Amino acid sequence: MRTFKDNLLRGLLWFSAFVTVGILLLIVGYIFYKGFRLINFEFIFGDYSPTGGGGIWPMVVTTVYTIAISLVIATPIGILAAVYLQEYAKQGRLVKTIRFATESLTGIPSIIYGLFGAVFFVTTLKLGMSIISASLTLTIIVLPVVIRTTEEALKTVPGAYREGSLALGTTKLQTLIKVILPSSMPGILSGIILSMGRIIGESAAIFLTAGTVAAMPSSIFSSARTLTVHAFLVTQEAGDIELAAAIGIVLIVLILVLNFSATFISKKLNKADY
């Protein structure tokens, strides 16, 4: 009976894994099947034409701008907040309240963030419908993700590392910079990668804060359109599933490139530290 239960559980685990991978391959395969025909140099690097036949380069640039600005703001703030909560703050009611607040923020729909960004950044701060307004809104969206994943990464560092470093005469700050953060870098990197995926996949918040201008942005204060918003609009307005699928292929490749780049940089930093 015990062997039967073990085999049954193992079979269920394998079945779940195959179903998960199968669904992923089905979705990705369908997107490539529908959109791969449109992928060429002109499609990726050409300017958009509302009459058809144009490219998506302005949307690619807007997407990269949005990712870069959001991560430049959210990553240091999130890491520093997590370090304070985990390494310096007294573990009491206040810290529990802050953690509860950050966890609650992850469950708020992105359309609510978009409405807040439209009211605060676009109207109150008079930034207008722009890339910077969208990036600041996305910073608020991904900040809880960076904080929580960094906290969990810091918890995985053995206490013996801290004790050994302090026993050698280093300060707490030196221990943090030279020992704790390098050891927790894989977990921190995972949070950054998750944040990149969240930023790339957002459409509602960007739609309400950056606008829908399908042109090359002249600055971060220009109204523009990201790839996800573009895919949504061409599907809604023109019903062009093939074009939306081609945009999806570009998004998948962009995510893979950014993920591999982040992993490569993390490995280089770890080697430099040791």
TrEMBL record:
Gene3D superfamilies: MetI-like. It is found in: Cell membrane. InterPro entries: MetI-like, MetI-like_sf, Phosphate_PstA. Its main location: membrane. Pfam families: BPD_transp_1 (PF00528). Residues 60-262 form the ABC transmembrane type-1 domain. The chain crosses the membrane at residues 12-33, 56-85, 97-121, 127-147, 204-223, 243-265. It is a multi-pass membrane protein. It comes from the Bacteria. Keywords: Cell membrane, Membrane, Transmembrane, Transmembrane helix, Transport. PANTHER family: PHOSPHATE TRANSPORT SYSTEM PERMEASE PROTEIN PSTA-RELATED. Belongs to the binding-protein-dependent transport system permease family. CysTW subfamily. This is Phosphate transport system permease protein PstA. The lineage of its organism: Bacteria, Bacillati, Bacillota, Bacilli, Bacillales.
